[in-house]
């Protein structure tokens, strides 16, 4: 997840939400997700040694949580490029790292230069060299069939990942298998609320826009996800829609009439007109990759879906 794009974790009173507030809120959320209500003493008293991040992406939350909770975390992801990026960022925690714009090469204080294409073995060796293999390890694998023995982890969490599972019950059962008995699994899931009416065409259209723009499969209802967890063998200790009692709507930055907000102006009709034409011009002269206009169209449709769905 890109922290700069995590508008849904921000809150503000006037609609003018600062970037610093978004980053701070996301950081707090990642910590909240890991140990709900946990102060430093509680974290130390309830220290867990081996934790699994299911569908870790490039490892942003993984690194934040590892440093905050003082745990050893294994990130599991089926995408080779994201795994490679995650290992590079883990190394960057130890070295003064710089890379070129397309991330094809990087270099650091140890005077090494590595091509990121196909370097999993080299980067893992570098992780081991600096000691990060114990805190930020990455494994390329399918979370429907994980390469771990039974009862391997003291805790497991997933952030916007298991929604991509073709069979949610089977996915949760696999997580149950690798989790030690009596330990906890925390998950943050894309879900449709009970307000969704599958027979309402407007609701169906909104759902389709969200799925298309966010590369999501069929989004499940909250009740379906909870039932899948139970069928997998878990006991649901706590569940909550964090947006339900938020003092400020999470979708506020997507409001289309924020003409006097620097961040919100881009979502106004005028702002979108400028953005579309800038993207068209940049793609035409080759400064933006081919397909940028189509991608922008998908993202704007997703923004509309999220805003209308939130309302």
Automatic annotation (TrEMBL):
Pfam families: Methyltransf_11 (PF08241), Sterol_MT_C (PF08498)
SUPFAM superfamilies: S-adenosyl-L-methionine-dependent methyltransferases
Name of this protein: Methyltransferase
Organism listed in the record: Rhododendron simsii (Sims's rhododendron)
One BP term from GO: sterol biosynthetic process
CDD domains in UniProt: AdoMet_MTases
Presence of keyword Endoplasmic reticulum: no
Family, per entry: Belongs to the class I-like SAM-binding methyltransferase superfamily. Erg6/SMT family.
């Amino acid at each position: 997840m890109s922290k700069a794009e995590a508008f849904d974790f921000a809150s503000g009173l006037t609609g003018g939400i600062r970037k610093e507030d978004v980053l701070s809120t996301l950081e707090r959320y990642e910590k909240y997700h890991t140990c709900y209500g946990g102060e430093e003493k509680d974290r130390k008293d309830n220290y867990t040694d081996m934790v699994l991040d299911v569908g870790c992406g490039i490892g942003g939350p993984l690194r934040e949580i590892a440093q905050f909770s003082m745990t050893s975390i294994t990130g599991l992801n089926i995408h080779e490029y994201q795994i490679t990026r995650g290992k590079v960022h883990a190394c960057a925690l130890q070295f003064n790292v710089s890379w070129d714009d397309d991330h094809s090469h990087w270099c650091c204080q140890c005077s090494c230069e590595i091509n990121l294409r196909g370097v999993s073995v080299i980067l893992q060796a570098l992780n081991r060299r600096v000691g990060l293999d114990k805190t930020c390890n990455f494994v390329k694998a399918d979370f429907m069939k994980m390469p771990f023995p039974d009862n391997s982890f003291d805790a497991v969490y997933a952030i916007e990942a298991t929604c991509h599972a073709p069979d949610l019950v089977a996915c949760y059962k696999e997580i149950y298998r690798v989790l030690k008995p009596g330990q906890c699994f925390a998950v943050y899931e894309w879900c449709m609320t009970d307000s969704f009416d599958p027979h309402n065409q407007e609701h169906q259209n909104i759902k389709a826009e969200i799925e298309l723009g966010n590369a999501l499969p069929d989004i499940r209802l909250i009740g379906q996800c909870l039932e899948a967890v139970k069928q997998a063998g878990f006991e649901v200790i706590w569940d909550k829609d964090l947006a339900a009692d938020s003092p400020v709507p999470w979708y506020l930055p997507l409001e289309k009439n924020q003409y006097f907000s620097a961040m919100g102006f881009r979502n106004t009709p005028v702002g979108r007109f400028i953005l579309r034409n800038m993207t068209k011009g940049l793609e035409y002269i080759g400064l933006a990759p081919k397909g940028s206009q189509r991608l922008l169209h998908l993202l704007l449709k997703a923004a509309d879906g999220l805003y209308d769905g939130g309302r």
